[in-house]
């Protein structure tokens, strides 16, 4: 009996020793695995798009065995982003528009990535203007560019044809847009021209695009000393154009509360003749709305002939949550490098990425603006040429015209608040025949000015 | 049969003989066990009810983005809310919503309940049908009604009205019809719960009262007016205050249907609070949001107190 007890004691002691040794070996043989959550696709994406994304996650994890990536569905919208930011429920890696990154960085709401980014081999190749969008006033890099876009006119070639218009000759002036819209509405019964009109800043964003194209600006100066100029003559002109299409021509259909996703769906469903949105929206039209590629046409925004007129440009940056550990931050930058940047700078990765996308019937070759330089953008496009599956010929009016146009950045101070102040103005014009444009703009200007002055 | 309540009478000598209360006697008498059993409840209420209220009060006098250190701003948030040009619009819309809901939404469940109680067969089926909208998840209901309210001639309501050569109407797309459209959906979605309450309350009305009224020659309307309503007045008063409190806090419908549009015509107080907190993607103005929340809570508390005082004699008389 005594010997049995002794044997048991020895066995337990040996077991403990073995476990301790195993733990010690585990601790020294490799770094502790790091898990990061990353923004994946927008909710409602097709199964093929999800499969393609997961394939990229698997590839990344194979190349980085110490990192585990947890994809989280993600779509940036003003209100949901603010709520997630406040609650701390954003994924470790997430996307923000050009307009927000700098201020979020100044407020300590984004992780400082400077030391990691400067080690990237292509760091010096970034277009400095684009990189500035993710750099704070103290020089901290808090976000890396994902992509840049120019606002564009998306049009339905089938509806153009049905209305007796030439789908290869999209309108090049706003007067033509209005005339074509009326013709489409009259002949097909669909909305000839539709516009985002939702109270989530999108209405203000599109109105600003129209105002830029006519030569107006929403702000003068910079920072808290900027002067709000929402009540400029071009804003009145743009709103009067909308008023005419809505109330006189009756060419805007029956829905005036489209948000970004809704208008994409309506367009993909063939209910909208023309609308304004970012040049890269085709990806969403495929992934979330399964658009029939044959109906799609892309043209530049009509721009007035004065020197101030231009195209509103913007983009998306990728940032990291400030609460992550250093190891998670390093892993997050690795993911950003792999998923967002490598396909733009490294031939092998660009080809592999394009091949996977094409194999899963995801769009390859959607027109964007270069985040490095124009030469690098053209080079990357030659790498992926065999895999380009978007109707590139139907996008030619845009791709051949955009680089000759003047690109203008979004209003720099309190951008989202400026857009938000404009939302009810657009809604009033689209829902009230007797809306007083000048008085509405004056009210919006006062709201925007107070936000700019208080830095909110 | 009368019930005689017997109250134990403690004699003076009992009081004299009561042992002195010490912590030990408190433990022996089960005080500690009671406290231990109370702890989880205190924790749950503390963490999820009282702590957020305290934080709300604190945040209303602070400026914070929830990441950096908050700064004390005194009553500046309250002042900013009061001077916000959107506040009168939100108040007006909320009052309009509450008034419309009261005029159209409040009597409807009562009428439905009275009619159902008169039905002899399949009363359960009608109750289920009335309650069904409450079971449908609110977001689903709103999506469903969005197709009803589609402003095109192919929208469900516009198609039906089109058969009578009416419309198409813009429903949610017009500043004048958007808010009434929300009230209509809200009434449909919430009436079922109140119908069930009234049905239950109607079962306690003594049938002899109806028989007596019938003998006196009263028809159904006079029976309802002279028997049902007086008998239900306690319940009616409670459901009315509950409805007023609920409509003062209406958020779901304007948020999901219209986001407060078109042109702020459906912006309600709670949506304004939400917009303060989350309307700006750069991090909201939580100070203003909590300040307006406290103002609303204080108003509702005061209103409820006045309402209960004013209706006390009627509800119990």
Write a concise keyword list for the protein shown above.
heterodimer, A: 456 residues, alpha/beta, 18 helices, globular, B: 317 residues, mainly alpha, MetI-like fold, 2 domains, 1% strand
Walkthrough of the structure:
The complex is a heterodimer of chains A (456) and B (317). Chain A starts with a helix and ends with a helix. Chain A has 456 residues and is an alpha/beta fold. In chain A, strand 6 and strand 7 form a beta hairpin. Chain A contains 18 helices and 11 strands. Chain A folds into 2 domains: 34-148 and 314-387, Periplasmic binding protein-like II (D-Maltodextrin-Binding Protein, domain 2); 150-313 and 401-454, Periplasmic binding protein-like II (D-Maltodextrin-Binding Protein, domain 2), CATH 3.40.190.10. Chain A is globular, with a radius of gyration of 26 Å. In chain A, helix 9 crosses helix 10 (233-248), helix 9 crosses helix 17 and helix 13 packs across helix 14. In chain A, strands 3, 4, 5, 8, 9, 10 and 11 form a 7-stranded mixed beta sheet that branches. Helix content of chain B is 70%, strand content 1%. Chain B is built from 15 helices and 2 strands. Chain B has 2 domains: 21-59, no CATH class; 76-316, MetI-like fold (Orthogonal Bundle), CATH 1.10.3720.10. By secondary structure, chain B is mostly helical. A two-stranded antiparallel ribbon of chain B has the order 1-2. Chain B has helices at 12-17, 23-28, 31-59, 76-82, 86-105, 107-118, 123-135, 138-148, 156-163, 178-202, 207-215, 220-248, 252-258, 269-278, 286-316; strands at residues 62-63, 71-72. Classes of the chains: A alpha/beta (456), B mainly alpha (317). Chain A binds chain B through residues 76-83, 85-86, 96-97, 100, 103-104, 107-109, 197-201, 253-257, 322, 416-417, 420, 423-425, 427-428, 430-432, 435, 443, 447, 456, and chain B through 65-68, 85, 150-153, 155, 168, 170, 172-175, 258-264, 274-275, 277-286.
Instruction: State the order of secondary-structure elements of chain B, H for helix, E for strand.
Output: HHHEEHHHHHHHHHHHH
Tell me the radius of gyration of chain A. 26 Å
Order of helices and strands of chain A: HEHEHEHHHEHHEHEEHHEHEEHHHHEHH
Question: How many individual β-strands of chain B?
Answer: 2
Number of helices of chain A: 18
Question: CATH-wise, what's the superfamily of the largest domain in chain A?
Answer: Periplasmic binding protein-like II
CATH topology of the largest domain in chain B: MetI-like fold
Mean pLDDT of chain A: 88
What is the averaged pLDDT score of chain B? 88
Quickly count the domains of chain B.
Answer: 2
Protein chain pair with the most extensive contact, residues per chain: A-B, 44 and 35 residues
Strand content of chain B: under 5%
Structural class of chain A: alpha/beta
Helix content of chain B: over 70%
- Please indicate the percent range of residues of chain A in DSSP E strands (runs of 2 or more): 5-15%
């Amino acid at each position: 009996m005594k010997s049995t007890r002794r044997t048991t004691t020895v066995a337990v002691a040996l077991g403990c020793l073995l476990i301790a040794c195993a733990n010690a070996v585990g601790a020294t043989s490799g770094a502790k695995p790091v898990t990061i959550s990353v923004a994946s696709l927008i909710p409602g994406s097709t199964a093929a798009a999800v499969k393609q994304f997961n394939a990229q996650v698997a590839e990344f994890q194979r190349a980085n065995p110490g990192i585990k990536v947890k994809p989280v569905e993600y779509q940036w919208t003003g209100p949901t982003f603010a709520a997630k930011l406040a609650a701390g429920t954003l994924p470790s890696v997430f996307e923000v528009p050009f307009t927000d990154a700098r201020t979020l960085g100044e407020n300590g709401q984004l992780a400082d990535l400077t030391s990691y980014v400067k080690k990237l081999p292509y760091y010096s190749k970034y277009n400095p203007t684009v990189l500035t969008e993710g750099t704070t006033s103290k020089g901290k890099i808090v976000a890396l560019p994902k992509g840049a876009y120019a606002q564009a006119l998306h049009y339905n070639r089938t509806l153009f044809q049905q209305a007796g218009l030439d789908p290869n000759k999209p309108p090049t002036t706003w007067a033509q847009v209005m005339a074509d819209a009326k013709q489409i509405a009259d002949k097909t019964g669909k909305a000839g021209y539709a516009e985002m009109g939702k109270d989530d800043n999108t209405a203000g964003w599109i109105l600003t695009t129209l105002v830029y194209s006519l030569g107006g600006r929403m702000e003068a100066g910079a920072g808290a000393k900027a002067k709000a100029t929402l009540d400029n003559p071009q804003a009145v002109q743009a709103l009067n154009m909308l008023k005419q299409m809505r109330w006189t021509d009756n060419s805007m259909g029956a829905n005036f509360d489209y948000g970004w996703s809704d208008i994409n769906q309506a367009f993909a469903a063939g209910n909208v003749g023309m609308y304004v949105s970012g040049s890269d929206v085709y990806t969403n039209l495929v992934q979330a709305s399964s658009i029939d590629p044959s109906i799609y046409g892309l043209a530049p925004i009509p721009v007035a002939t004065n020197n101030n007129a231009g195209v509103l440009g913007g983009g998306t940056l990728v940032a990291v949550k400030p609460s992550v550990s250093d190891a998670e931050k390093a892993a997050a930058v690795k993911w950003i490098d792999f998923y967002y940047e490598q396909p733009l700078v490294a031939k092998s990765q660009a080809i592999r990425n394009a091949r996977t996308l094409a194999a899963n019937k995801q769009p390859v070759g959607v027109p964007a603006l270069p985040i490095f330089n124009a030469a690098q953008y053209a080079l990357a496009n030659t790498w992926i040429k065999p895999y380009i599956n978007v109707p590139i010929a139907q996008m030619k009016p845009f791709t051949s015209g955009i680089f000759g146009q003047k690109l203008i950045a979004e209003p720099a101070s309190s951008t989202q608040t400026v857009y938000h102040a404009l939302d009810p103005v657009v809604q009033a014009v689209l829902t009230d025949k007797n809306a007083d444009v000048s008085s509405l703009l004056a009210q919006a200007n006062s709201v925007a000015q107070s936000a700019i002055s208080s830095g909110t | 049969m009368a019930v005689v309540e017997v109250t134990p009478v403690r004699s003076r000598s009992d009081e004299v003989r009561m042992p002195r209360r010490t912590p030990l006697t408190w433990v022996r008498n089960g005080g500690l066990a009671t406290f231990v059993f109370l702890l989880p409840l205190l924790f749950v209420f503390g963490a999820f009810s009282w702590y957020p209220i305290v934080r709300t009060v604190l945040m209303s006098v602070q400026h914070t983005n929830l990441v950096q250190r908050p700064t004390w701003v005194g009553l500046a948030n309250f002042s900013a809310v009061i001077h916000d040009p959107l506040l009168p619009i939100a108040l007006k819309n909320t009052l309009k919503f509450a008034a419309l809901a009261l005029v159209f939404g409040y009597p409807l469940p009562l009428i439905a309940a009275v009619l159902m109680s008169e039905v002899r067969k399949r009363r359960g089926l009608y109750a289920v049908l009335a309650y069904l909208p409450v079971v449908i998840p609110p977001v689903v209901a709103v999506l469903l009604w969005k197709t009803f309210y589609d402003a095109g001639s192919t929208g469900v309501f516009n198609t039906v009205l089109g058969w009578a050569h009416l419309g198409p109407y813009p429903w949610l797309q017009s500043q004048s019809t958007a808010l009434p459209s929300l009230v209509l959906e809200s009434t449909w979605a919430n009436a079922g719960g109140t119908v069930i309450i009234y049905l239950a309350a109607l079962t306690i009305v003594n049938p002899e009262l109806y028989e007596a009224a019938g003998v006196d020659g009263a028809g159904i309307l006079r029976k309802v007016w002279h028997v049902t309503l007086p008998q239900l007045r306690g319940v009616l008063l409670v459901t009315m205050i509950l409805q007023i409190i609920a409509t003062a806090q209406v958020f779901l419908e304007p948020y999901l249907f219209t986001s407060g549009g078109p042109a702020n015509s459906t912006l309600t107080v709670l949506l304004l609070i939400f917009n303060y907190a989350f309307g700006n993607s750069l991090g909201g103005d939580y100070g203003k949001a909590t300040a307006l929340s406290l103002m609303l809570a204080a108003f509702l508390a005061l209103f409820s107190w006045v309402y209960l005082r004013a209706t006390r004699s009627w509800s119990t008389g």
